[in-house]
Design goal:
Number of helices: 17
Shape: elongated
Helix content: 55-70%
Structural class: mainly alpha
Distance between the termini: 96 Å
Strand content: under 5%
Number of domains: 4
Strand order of the largest sheet: 1-2
């Protein structure tokens, strides 16, 4: 494509260059105007040392607000012009560099460093851009380029809690994004999302329905103890609710007083429930000889205990004979 046919937007390259040259003159005029406003505001209210005493009749803000109103500008515009003019004495201002660049680089505290920076554009560039100036002073840029700048821009845009929630949800729906999150951070995310008891309950229930997850979770002593405690507490609550609401509760309470009926039924139910959770995990799994021996020994103890319970229920005799006692002791 020749220079005659190259276009920028709707104009040719040559016309674009004419517009740039024209607007640079306009920007220069605006910069001079902004510095003039700043200089006059400084004349009215010079920069005072911290802790200085304001004029008795007018405070700095009152003076600048009056000036802004009288010339048709906002207070912020006048105050910014005054601040920028104070950072750039006339001999250090540079033509061809916009007031915006002067204002941004004016944030550099050291004077020598500040004045040198204005005449030293970033490496490989002929002139300062607003984003380059913002990078120089550590501000968030308008057009982020590096990964860190993009991260900073996302954090800046997501300061609103609702926006942050939506962005987080959308990002975590992308498998490639979720895959790059470290296990530690994934755990942290889950912990944050499950602070709500309802969410935590739903998540835990769903996860424990996955056999591999449930098996690994129960390998943790604390987790297993909490589950057992929860089962016992649930049984107690069910018992309390039964006694409060069931029409046969009085009769059951009579049985309870004579044979601790509900405690025994609860113990049997807990054993059955535990077996129901554990045995399916043995599917397609062959135990080693020593494992089978240990399981058979415990099954023998369970059978003997069940016989003992049955005898106690039928006869009221709860004595443990010598053979059962030795078996329960593992002898």
């Amino acid at each position: 494509m020749t220079e005659e046919t190259e276009k920028v937007g709707n104009v040719s390259q040559s016309r674009y260059e004419q517009i740039v040259a024209e607007l640079r003159q306009v920007v220069e005029q605006q910069s001079q105007g902004s510095f003039t406003i700043g200089d006059r505001a400084l004349e009215i209210e010079p920069i005072r040392a911290r802790g200085g005493i304001a004029d008795a009749e007018w405070s700095v803000k009152q003076s600048l607000m009056r000036l802004a109103e009288d010339i048709g500008l906002t207070f912020r515009r006048v105050e910014a012009a005054r601040s920028t003019a104070s950072r750039w004495p006339k001999q250090h201002r540079q033509t061809g560099i916009s007031f915006t660049i002067h204002r941004t680089l004016g944030r550099i505290e050291d004077e020598e460093e500040r004045f040198a920076a204005l005449t030293t554009p970033p490496e490989g560039k002929m002139r300062w851009t607003p984003d380059d100036a913002k990078r120089r002073v550590g501000w968030t840029v308008d057009n982020p380029e590096t990964p860190q700048e993009k991260i900073t821009a996302i954090h800046h845009l997501a300061r609103d809690e609702e926006v942050a929630a939506i962005v987080t949800t959308d990002l975590l729906k992308r498998p490639q994004v979720a895959a790059k999150v470290s296990p530690e951070n994934k755990v942290r995310v889950v912990e944050e999302f499950t602070r709500d008891e309802t969410v935590a309950t739903t998540a835990a229930t769903t996860l424990l329905r996955r056999p591999d997850v449930a098996f690994k979770a129960m390998a943790d002593d604390t987790a297993r103890s909490q589950v057992n405690h929860a089962q016992t507490e649930r049984s107690r609550q069910a018992r309390d609710a039964f006694e409060r609401t069931s029409p046969i509760a009085p009769a059951v309470r009579h049985i309870d007083r004579t044979a601790e009926f509900l405690d025994l039924v609860t113990a049997c139910h807990a054993f059955i429930a535990a077996a129901g959770r554990t045995v399916p995990g043995l599917r397609d799994r062959t135990l080693a000889d020593d494992e089978r021996t240990l399981v058979h020994q415990n099954i023998a103890k369970v059978r003997a205990t069940l016989d003992w319970i049955e005898t106690a229920v039928d006869t009221g005799k709860v004595d443990v004979d010598d053979e059962l006692a030795r078996l329960l002791r593992g002898e």
